[in-house]
Write a structure and sequence with these properties.
Helix content is 27%, strand content 8%. The protein is of the alpha+beta class. The protein has one domain.
């Protein structure tokens, strides 16, 4: 996927943030590593079912500081409600809990 960003002039990768099968304590981290290694920003999007709004947030280039980068997403999604709020886990990556995170 990283090399695809080098070869395709206008590539957009869309990754949904809310899982539909079951609650998870961690987000899958592929989106983060792809963006960081490809040198492309992440543009968060949302469907806030509580306020019946959808949209996009400002783009963020990944710094490599996982905790700091993920804090951006925690702040962005704070107060938003998914379609199945009881299935939405915390906004964090497993790497944040690792010693090198």
């Amino acid at each position: 996927m990283v090399s695809a960003f080098d070869t395709v002039p206008h590539l957009v990768l869309v990754v949904p943030t809310e899982g539909t099968r079951e609650k998870s304590e961690y987000w899958k981290s592929g989106f983060y590593h792809i963006a960081r290694q490809a040198g492309v920003p992440i543009v968060p999007s949302f469907l806030d079912f509580g306020r019946k709004l959808g949209g996009f947030g400002p783009a963020l280039a990944m710094s490599g500081d996982v905790r700091s980068d993920m804090q951006y997403f925690r702040d962005f999604y704070d107060g938003m409600q998914g379609k199945f709020p009881d299935q939405f886990g915390p906004v964090r990556l497993r790497e944040e809990d690792d010693s090198g995170g």
